Amino acid sequence: MSTVEITLNMDSVGNMGNSEQEFSLLLTLSKEDPLYEKKRKLLDARGFDHDIRVFLSSSESSHATFKSLISAARIIEMDEAELYFAGVDVLQPVDFYSPTNELKSLNSLLSHIDISLNSALSNKMEQLLRQLKYETVDVIRVYGDKNRDEAKIEICNCRAENLLLQWGKEHGLKTKLQIAHVEGAGRGAVAVEDLTIGDTVLEIPESIIISEEHVYVSEMFEILKRMDDISAETMLLLWSMKERHNPESKFKFYFDTLPKTFNTGLDFGVEALTALEGTLLFDEIIQAKELEFNQHLRSQYDTLCPLLCRDHPDVFQPEFYSWDQFLWACELWYSNSMKVIFTDGKLRTCLVPFAGLLNHSADDSGNHDWTTHMVRGTWLSSNHEILNYGLPPTLLNYLRSALKDAEQPKDSNVNIDNERGVLETLYSIFNPMMEGHGDPDNPHWESPSWDVKLALEYKDLERRIISSVLQSCLTGLERLQLIESKHQLKCCLTCVLFDLAAAVDGSG
C-alpha cells in the first residue's frame, strides 16, 4: 500500500497594513511516495505548482477553496490503478476517481483542517478554517447520501466475536463498533451509535497487536535465531501455527474467531475452475496452484518444519506443524496482515485483532513502471471522444509509440492510419479473449458453493469489460472512417472547384 504523507501548513501572507488578510494552505506530496514522479506529472498537468498552495480569504468563497484543495488531494491519495486511468481526463478533470479515493481525500482534508484549527493564530484564521470545514463536511454528507447501501444484518451466533471484543476492551481497545454478519457481504462491523463525520470509531493499543516482538519473547526464538536466513515473517508463520492451539495464549480469543479455511482462489474446487475456464483468472489460479505458490511454499515447509519437529519436538509439536497447518498460517498472514507504524517509528507486518474484520487495502508492492498495462470497463470513462475512446491513455500512447506516433496527436491533425492501427491492435488482442469465454453461462447450480458463485460473478464481469473494450474499438474505428471520408470529400470538392476555376479561366 502506498504511504502518502500530507502536511497542511498555515502561513500568514497578508500585509500588516492591509485590512483584508490572507492565509494559505500548503499540501505536500511526499517524495517517499513510490508513485511520486507520476503524481507530480499529473499535478503539473492540472496546473498545480510544486508547492501546492491554496489561498484562503474572506473575499473568496470557501467552496472555491475546497475545490482547489480536493482536486490536489485526490491526486495525492491515488493508488496505482487510479493513477493509471487518471489520464483519461487530464484536460477535463473529473469529480472523483473512485469511491475509495474520494473518501481518503475528504478524510485527509478534514483531519488536517481540524489539526490547523487547534493551532489557529487568529480569530480570522479560525473563522476561515471553520468555513472550510463546514464545506468539507457538507460534501461528505452529500456523497454519503448518494452512495448509501441498505444492509441487512443477519441473525447469527457471534459468541466468539463478542468474547474477542470484550477481551480487547479489557486491554485498552476503544470502539463504537460491534461485529455483525451482513447479508451478502459476510462478517464485518456496524456502528452501535450514531456517528458524526470525523469521529474516531476504533482505537487499538499496540499491546494487543501481533507482531514479531511476540516471537522474540517466545521459547522458540532461542532455536530460530540460530538458523541462517530465516526472516521475521517466517518466524511469525511458525509462531502462529503453535499459538493457534495454545489454550493459555494471550490471543486465544482472536484465534477463536478465525475461520478454518480462508476461501481464497487457492481453495477453488473443480467446478469453480471449470466455470472460470477461458478467463485470465483461470490461468493465474492454475499457475499459483501448480507452480509458483505451492512449489515455493512446499520447499519452504520441507526445509523448516520436519527438521524442527524432529530436533525440537518439545517446542515444535508435529501435530501443529502439518502441511495443511502451514498453508493455513500462510493464508492467514496473506489475507489478514496489515502494515503498522509503531510508536518507535518502525513499520511492521502485523495481525491486528478486531481490525482484521474490517476491509483494508493490500500492501502496494506492484510494479510502478507500467510495463504491464490495464483496461477497465469503458463505461467508467467520461471521455469517449476521438483519441480517447474511453480507453486508458497510458495504453493508447504506448501503442501509438509502438506504431511510430510517439505522442497523442491533436484533434485537428489526427494520424488516421496510426489511430486505426492502435484500435485494430487492441481489437485483435481482446476479440480472441471474448471468443474464449464462449456464450454466457446458464447457471445450472441450484445452490452454488461459494467458489462457484465467485467464479461466475468474476467471469460475467470480465466478459462485460472485454465487451466494452471491443465496442469502444469499433466505435472509434467508425469515427476514424467518418473523419477520413470527410477529408476525402473535402479533397474532391477542392479538386472540383479547382477544375471549375480553370474552366472559367479557359473560357475567358
Automatic annotation (TrEMBL):
This is Rubisco LSMT substrate-binding domain-containing protein. The keyword Transferase applies. GO terms for molecular function: protein-lysine N-methyltransferase activity. Keywords: Methyltransferase, S-adenosyl-L-methionine, Transferase. It holds the Pfam family Rubis-subs-bind. Transmembrane segments: none annotated. Residues 31-119 form the Rubisco LSMT substrate-binding domain. It comes from the Eukaryota. InterPro entries: Rubisco_LSMT_subst-bd (IPR015353), Rubisco_LSMT_subst-bd_sf (IPR036464), SET_dom_sf (IPR046341), SETD3_SETD6_MTase (IPR050600). One of its GO terms (biological process) is methylation. It comes from Stephania cephalantha. The keyword Phosphoprotein does not apply. PANTHER family: N-METHYLTRANSFERASE DOMAIN AND SET DOMAIN CONTAINING PROTEIN-RELATED, UNCHARACTERIZED PUTATIVE METHYLTRANSFERASE.
